[in-house]
């Protein structure tokens, strides 16, 4: 994994006064004063006649925001005029070589969202840098809380590089906020048509390893190995059986977790337990933030 020289955070600002993503960046800056935070406002309703005046107005608003967030010592304003907000933000995240990005979660409308993807959904599915999605800036974010690392150990799609990126991210959050890392492995239903996962490990390991009697046993064995390699207590590992979007939120509530870290591998198919849709469904059900990694390539170039 390549070494990061400067910790750069790109924050997508929303129209209006409420800025959950920037509030979270301000909180991080309280513990990590050296980080650079780029506050990005994308103007999508403009024409050539109004572009200059709108940019000037937004620039004044960004100066006010900087004063309201004194923890951010390295506050960088960024204004982009673009019709497609998610596309422009994803491009800026990639071109600017940011360490991570932070966005605010959009409110869901069950019927409308069937036809029109929200901005946060589009960003979650396409961004190539690690992404933190903040659901509620006022949600409890005390110290000593659990950082839940959700890993899919299904054999066919399993990506160990993604595991390492997620673990290192979880460790940074846990170290900075005096929290503890827990690891969850969700054993998806056997029904291949409903959030199903690969069932081959049960056939391979079930007949070869003494003491292995069920899929739960197999996945606990995967967790035991991961915990040993990363110096985690076995009691911080959890095998949950069922749908990802139901079991991960249930575990978060039981552990009072402040954050979920999970990956969405490019190799994953539509029905993979950890695809982008699963990340969005988990986001809808939890109270804390969700940290997502879609592409591990930049870390292993």
Describe, in short, the structure shown.
The chain has a 10-stranded mixed β-sheet, with helices on both faces. It contains 9 helices and 10 strands.
Present the secondary structure layout.
Blueprint: E1 8-12, H1 20-31, E2 36-43, H2 51-68, E3 74-81, H3 85-95, E4 100-104, H4 119-126, E5 131-134, E6 146-150, H5 160-176, E7 180-187, H6 200-206, H7 215-229, E8 237-241, H8 244-255, E9 257-263, H9 276-285, E10 289-293
Helix pairs in contact: 3-4, 8-9
Describe the protein in words.
- The chain is α/β, with parallel strands linked by helices.
- It has two domains: about 10-135, Rossmann fold, CATH 3.40.50; about 145-300, Rossmann fold.
- About 35% of the residues lie in helices and about 20% in strands.
- It has a ten-stranded mixed sheet, sandwiched between helices.
- Strand 1 (about 10), helix 1 (about 20-30) and strand 2 form a beta-alpha-beta unit.
- Helix 3 packs parallel to helix 4 (about 120-125).
- The longest helix has 18 residues, at about 50-70.
- It is elongated, with a radius of gyration of 20 Å.
- The model is unreliable at about 190-210 and about 265-275 (pLDDT under 50).
């Amino acid at each position: 994994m390549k070494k990061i020289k400067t910790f750069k955070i790109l924050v997508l600002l929303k129209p209006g006064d409420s800025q959950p993503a920037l509030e979270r960046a301000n909180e991080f800056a309280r513990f990590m004063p050296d980080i650079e935070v780029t506050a990005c406002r994308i103007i999508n309703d403009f024409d050539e006649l109004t572009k200059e005046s709108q940019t000037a107005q937004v620039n004044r608003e960004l100066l006010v925001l900087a004063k309201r967030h004194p923890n951010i010592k390295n506050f960088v304003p960024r204004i982009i005029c673009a019709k497609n907000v998610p596309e422009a933000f994803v491009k800026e995240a990639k071109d600017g070589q940011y360490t991570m990005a932070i966005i605010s979660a959009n409110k869901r409308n069950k019927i409308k969202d069937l036809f029109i993807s929200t901005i946060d959904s589009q960003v979650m599915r396409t961004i190539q840098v690690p992404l933190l999605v903040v659901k509620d800036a006022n949600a409890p974010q005390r110290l000593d809380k659990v950082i839940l690392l959700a890993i899919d150990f299904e054999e066919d799609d399993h990506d160990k590089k993604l595991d390492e990126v997620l673990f290192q991210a979880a460790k940074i959050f846990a170290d900075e906020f005096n929290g503890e890392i827990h690891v969850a492995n969700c054993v998806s239903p056997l029904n291949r048509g409903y959030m199903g996962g690969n069932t081959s490990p049960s056939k391979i390991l079930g007949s070869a390893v003494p003491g292995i009697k069920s899929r739960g046993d197999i996945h606990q064995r995967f967790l035991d190995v991961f915990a040993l390699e990363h110096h985690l207590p076995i009691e911080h590992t959890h095998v949950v059986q069922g749908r990802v979007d139901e079991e991960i939120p249930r575990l978060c509530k039981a552990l009072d977790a402040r954050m979920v870290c999970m990956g969405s591998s490019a190799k994953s198919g539509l029905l993979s337990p950890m695809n982008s849709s699963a990340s969005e469904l988990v986001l809808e059900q939890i109270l804390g933030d969700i940290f997502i990694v879609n592409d591990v390539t930049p870390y292993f170039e």
